[in-house]
Amino acid sequence: MRAVRGAVLVGLGLAACSAATNAGGGSEATTSSGSGESGGPGSTGSTGGTSGGTTAAPTTTTAMPAPDLGVMNDCRHDSPEALMDCIDPGRWAEEVAFIAASRPPGSPHWHKVQDRCAARLEQAGFVVQRQDYGSGVNVIGTREGVTDPGEVVLLAAHYDHISGCPGADDNASGVAGALEVARVLGQASLPRTLVVACWDEEELGLRGSRAFAQTFTGAKLAVAFNFDMIGYASAAEQSQVFPGPLAERFPGLADELAANKGRGDFIAVVADASAEPFALELEAQAEALGRLTGVMTLTAVEKLDDDAFGVLSMSDHRSFWELGLPALHVFDTGLFRNPTYHCTLGLDTADTLDHAFATDVLKATAAAVAAAAGL
């Protein structure tokens, strides 16, 4: 998630985040890794460079292999609800541990994570392209729909981060989540085309997602789902900040959070009006799991109003809103809950994440994406 200027915090009446206590982790929590693993066979690194430009040009395309089914726990893939049982929290944790190391664009680990995205999407049965748009590289996996291939459902997360910070929550958690959902949905027969992408240069102004959105042609985008920080939760009372202006705009959610004693353990979803039905589907799936979820729907004017609601459009979903395309953002509220956001009050490492929370995010999103794709 992009850094927030001090003016934004002041405008929201927020001097500092409340100290949030991690409530999860679990036995499979792992520390940050700078492993030398380079991804799957056949993957190639691409330099990010520093030059400008937004013209998209796929530089590498690989054919669709048989999907890697992995350990599926006897799950089925014939309904959105059945797919939730296919999510493997251990795989998510392994991916987070690999990704969570300093990876500014062009760095050695940035190359490794880019390769990892390509390898995992190939293994899940997607046709993979590396979109070199001039200053960075997106990794885009496509699995064509069986009956309505001209309609696209997108799930994406940014893989870059700032120098010197592991970025486990921001956004190793989201990239690992997108790859795990891709693995699961790669086994389903989906009417609509599914695209799963790893965006570059989100931290530098949403460059990667903008390059994709601005060159997206030849198909109809049904909806774009965005993951950015999906791994941090706290069961401590009053560990969640909900600024006054947002509480006034969304009083129902403010009341729910008050009833929950201010705990930072709910899933947050931000949508524009055209994506609201998909957000409500995700909310229903999450709350069926027992996970409190809050949907904040912005009007066409509000979603691009940086003065009033800019804090809700700080990630790659904004690139689609700018073009009038339906998009929603799934996250743990970022700096309003996690004190290690951008390593400000500590290191954003994998051992601070809540595996049970992230698992619920993945299950609900897998079901919602599958439903959006027509299953």
Explain what the structure shows.
The chain is α/β, with parallel strands linked by helices and 375 residues long. 32% of the residues lie in helices and 17% in strands. The protein has twelve helices and nine strands. The protein has helices at 6-11, 80-84, 89-99, 108-123, 168-185, 207-214, 244-249, 251-259, 276-288, 306-309, 317-321, 355-372, and strands spanning 57-62, 127-132, 137-143, 148-158, 192-199, 220-227, 267-272, 293-298, 327-331. It has a nine-stranded mixed β-sheet with strand order 1-2-3-5-4-6-9-7-8, sandwiched between helices. The radius of gyration is 19 Å and the shape is globular. Residues 4-67 have low confidence and may be disordered.
Layout of strands and helices, then pairs:
Blueprint: H1 6-11, E1 57-62, H2 80-84, H3 89-99, H4 108-123, E2 127-132, E3 137-143, E4 148-158, H5 168-185, E5 192-199, H6 207-214, E6 220-227, H7 244-249, H8 251-259, E7 267-272, H9 276-288, E8 293-298, H10 306-309, H11 317-321, E9 327-331, H12 355-372
Parallel strand pairs: 4-5, 4-6, 6-9, 7-8
Antiparallel strand pairs: 1-2, 2-3, 3-5, 7-9
Signal peptide: 1-23
Biased composition (Low complexity): 21-35, 53-63
Protein name: M20/M25/M40 family metallo-hydrolase
Q: Helix tally? A: 12
CATH superfamily: Zn peptidases
Strand content: 15-25%
Count of distinct structural domains: 1
Query: Main sheet: which strands, in order across?
Result: 1-2-3-5-4-6-9-7-8
At the fold tier of CATH, the topology name is Aminopeptidase
Q: Largest sheet at a glance?
A: 9 strands, mixed
CATH class: Alpha Beta
Shape: globular
Give the second-level CATH assignment, the architecture: 3-Layer(aba) Sandwich
Q: What would the average pLDDT be, to the nearest integer?
A: 85
Secondary-structure element order, as H and E?
HEHHHEEEHEHEHHEHEHHEH
Region (Disordered): 21-70
Keywords: Signal
Domain Peptidase M28: 138-364
Biased composition (Gly residues): 36-52
